[in-house]
Amino acid sequence: MFAMWDAYKEAGGGGRFSYISFASSAFIGTLGVIYSSVFTSFGILFGPVWLGIIGFIIGALIGKIFEKLMTNRYREHV
């Protein structure tokens, strides 16, 4: 995830808080891999690959929301 964020930043994408979505997706995706042997949904055990991918997607969405909130709050104070 750091390499993806670094490539995104070097290509000129994002702003001051662009790292938040990458960091949150890495964190929640890692939690998905850690708890993959225990977590079941409707009796289905997704395993480390699928639960990690689902965690990355959920983390990216949560991170994007926080990124938008932080960007809007920063604009209000400047």
Could you walk me through the main structural features you see in this protein, from its secondary elements to its overall organization?
The protein is mainly α and 78 residues long. It has one domain (22-77). The chain has 3 helices and 2 strands. It has helices spanning 2-10, 19-34, 47-77; strands spanning 40-41, 44-45. The chain has a two-stranded antiparallel sheet with strand order 1-2. Strand 1 (40-41) and strand 2 (44-45) form a beta hairpin. Helix 2 (19-34) packs antiparallel against helix 3.
Could you write a compact summary of the structure shown?
The chain is mostly helical and 78 residues long.
Secondary structure elements and their pairing?
Blueprint: H1 2-10, H2 19-34, E1 40-41, E2 44-45, H3 47-77
Antiparallel strand pairs: 1-2
Helix pairs in contact: 2-3
Primary descriptors:
78 residues, mainly alpha, two-stranded antiparallel sheet
Q: Care to count the β-strands?
A: 2
Biggest pleated-sheet summary: 2 strands, antiparallel
Distance between the termini: 30 Å
- Number of domains as seen in the coordinates: 1
The arrangement of helices and strands along the chain is: HHEEH
Beta-strand percent range: 5-15%
What's the total helix number?
3
Radius of gyration: 15 Å
Q: What is the overall silhouette?
A: elongated
Taking strands numbered 1, 2, ... along the chain, how are they ordered across the largest sheet? 1-2
Helix content: over 70%
On the 0 to 100 scale, the average pLDDT is 88
What structural category do the secondary elements indicate?
mainly alpha
Contiguous uncertain segments of 5+ residues: none
